[in-house]
Amino acid sequence: MRRPPEAKESNTPPRPATTSVRHGWHGAEWLWAAAIIAAVFAAYHPAWGAGFVWDDNGHVTRPDLLSLHGLWRIWFEPGATQQYYPLLHSAFWVEHRLWADSAPAYHLANIALHAAAAVLLLAVLRSLSVPGAILAAFAFALHPACVESVAWISEQKNTLSAVFYFSSALAYLRFESRRGKGAYLLAAVLFLMAVATKSVTATLPAALLVVAWWRHGRVSFRKDVVPLLPWFALAAIAGATTASVEHHYIGATGASFSLGFTDRIAVAGHAIWFYLGKALWPVGLSFIYPHWDVAAAGPSKFLYPAAFALLLAVLFAARGRARGPLATALLFAGTLFPALGFINVYPFVYSYVADHFQYLAISILLSAVAASLATAAHRLPQQARLVSAFVAAAVLAVMGSATFAQSESYANSEKLWTDTLATNPGCWMAYQNLGGIKLGRGDSAGATDDFRKAIELYPSNHEAMNELGVAQMQAGQLAQAETTLRAALVVAPNSTETHLNLGVALLEEGKADEAAMHLKGVLEVDPSNVKAMKNLAGALFQTGHPGEAEALYAKALEKDPDDAQAHSDYGAALATDGRYGEAIVEYQRAIALNPQLVVALKNLGAAFIGGRRFDEAADAFRKALSVVPDSAPLCNDLGIALANEGRLEEAAGQFRRALAIDPGYEQARRNLGAVTSRR
Fold this sequence. Notes:
There is one protein chain. With about 675 residues, the protein is mainly alpha-helical. The chain has a domain at about 5-60 and about 100-410. About 70% of the residues lie in helices and about 0% in strands. The protein has 34 helices and no strands. The termini are far apart. The model is unreliable at about 1-20 (pLDDT under 50).
């Protein structure tokens, strides 16, 4: 198919049925590409120095995956990463080698990938001679609905896969026009890279068939379908793999995913119109949107899919006059298909829609809108065209400003969740995550309030119940924590995390036997759980099994040798068994890791007394008192060490100091009497 003459191209927008694939750019197009890149970086300036939010730490390469063996696991061990997207996690692996855990570097990389995707969209549209290609590329680059994909590091899966997606489409269009094996192989490899980055790109072969129909008015089985058959097979494998990983490793199971087929149709129809609305009028954007109650919606829920089916029927009837609208509707809905509710994905727990679900699809819709506007503007007088160009520039400026403002929400997790609640006050997930942030900084009261709100909004939320129990433990409310954690186990009886936390709460309450039962259950499911080992060792120690406690402490410290508290507890078990020399070594290791660990200093002093090393005992107690100078028991212990050294006057001074702090401390009073009588 030959390219239309230049004169016709300059005066009349090309019609889909007569367009041919263009290859190569001239100088002006490179300038437009540079302008798109500059606009993207300017619009996303607030994200340049942003931090990690929500599950970013689950995507940025974990320490256990940083080695070459870790890279092997990324490719060949499903479950080693949050999702089985091996090329994405390989990219994160390389990035970690370049800039480690620098959040701004990851943000800049994601912004650069989005800019590259926008430039590649421009190249694809130019190749197809689509009117308004520059407007479409700028709109995609600056659209605020894309912010979730660009300013959230976890969604590098979107930006990177889009680069491969558009590159593959570009290479395939070259193959279509020249039928060269090299172009086909390049397109196929790029498609494989796209689905290995995110499986939503598996919709590309179907999209290419729609484009072929739009361009030629028909689809040839030999010319159009046959080359894409291997791609469809790969797409099916990618989709099945993602569905399996979501089910078995991520947790896309349970009541939240038990929709019937008709309800899934209702969700899909609602979602399509929702995304259409956010693309054309991007106001009220939210990190998490309200969760639709499909079951309570009644028959009206089918109005959405019925309206979309009617739209398709009208566009199908009009295809003889214009194929573009039908092609746009098919491409938009088809690209959204993996996220429309027919395949269970974990985010459906809290919402059926998300801005990042439509990252690729919105590029199609914006391209169609830009083409329509460019075609209409082309028919206007010259002066009116200039006005329309200024209007388009103003709209893009508004979009860029909205993107700038939206990307500010990703500065840190607390701001993200606070901004989410401003747009979606009923978001239990936001309250739960805000509670986690407050719990991490020691604000147990604030965390408790947020977890309670999360549970009010989602009563069967066992994760929020579990975290509420932890907050109550942190506040010293052990009885309330026990009640809360038992309630969480009613909802999720197999939650190892809740069994672990309940075991810890029971241990702190002095219910060591019952604590041991829960902690043993955790280790049966997860034998390498170090926290469970340490706490079970503590429970065994309290119930008179120091030998078993010692063995568990030793095993736990092999896995986590830098835990000062565990070294101290291990020393206590050894000391109880009369093994003072070994206990002293463990206490000293604990103090080397944390010189402020008073319990280790106190126990070290006691062990030295047991070994009749009184001068070293006194030194340990003095160091403990330098941390907590108003401790009457420590003053008493120091007095005992000094008295055993024969330093009776100094010992008496420490006993008096203890009594000054706590006048009712009878042991110190008796000790003072004893040393006084010996002087």
